[in-house]
Design a protein that fits this description.
This protein is α+β, with helices and mostly antiparallel strands. The chain has 2 domains: 47 residues, Single Sheet (Rubrerythrin, domain 2), CATH 2.20.28; 68 residues, Ferredoxin thioredoxin reductase catalytic beta subunit (Ferredoxin Thioredoxin Reductase). It has 4 helices and 5 strands; from the N terminus they run βββββαααα. It has a 3-stranded antiparallel sheet. It has a two-stranded antiparallel sheet with strand order 1-2. A hairpin with a 4-residue loop joins β1 and β2. α1 crosses α2. The longest helix has 16 residues. It is globular. The chain starts with a strand and ends with a helix. Bound molecules: zinc ion.
């Protein structure tokens, strides 16, 4: 069974193969965010799976790296710390390396989702 799920983190929809039920947690195949299924009918509705912020961003970063085949560099812990700080201050995981706290800069940021890592060899 094919289900289309809207991800409120990367603001795109992805296709999920298989059965879904309310309460189930699935991973966005675009950004790696974990989403909890709220409703299946009439349409699939999902929202960010609420967990402790550090756990959430670590799992998202690990999922995203696995999805894209990326590896972390020695700055990983510093960046995770920065992301948790930004979450505490501004309510979401805005990139600590970027000035603007806008949805496009929520980790993994839009450029990174658009394959910037392939071009630059690393994320911003
Ligand atoms: Zn997503």
């Amino acid at each position: 069974m094919k289900n289309k799920i809207y991800c409120e983190v990367c603001r795109l929809s992805f296709v999920y193969q298989g059965e879904l039920k309310p309460g189930q947690v699935v991973m966005c195949s675009i950004c790696g965010a974990e989403l909890e299924i709220n409703e299946v009918k009439p349409e699939v509705d999902a929202s960010r799976f609420l967990q402790d912020p550090e756990t959430e961003i670590r799992r998202r970063a690990d999922n995203f790296a696995r999805l894209r085949g990326y590896i972390f560099n020695e700055d990983k812990e510093l960046v995770i710390e920065g992301l948790v700080d930004k979450h505490n201050l501004y309510g979401d995981f805005y990139c600590p390396c970027r000035f603007e706290n806008i949805p496009e800069n929520v980790c993994p940021c839009l450029e990174t989702r658009m394959n910037e890592v392939r071009k630059l060899g690393h994320c911003y």
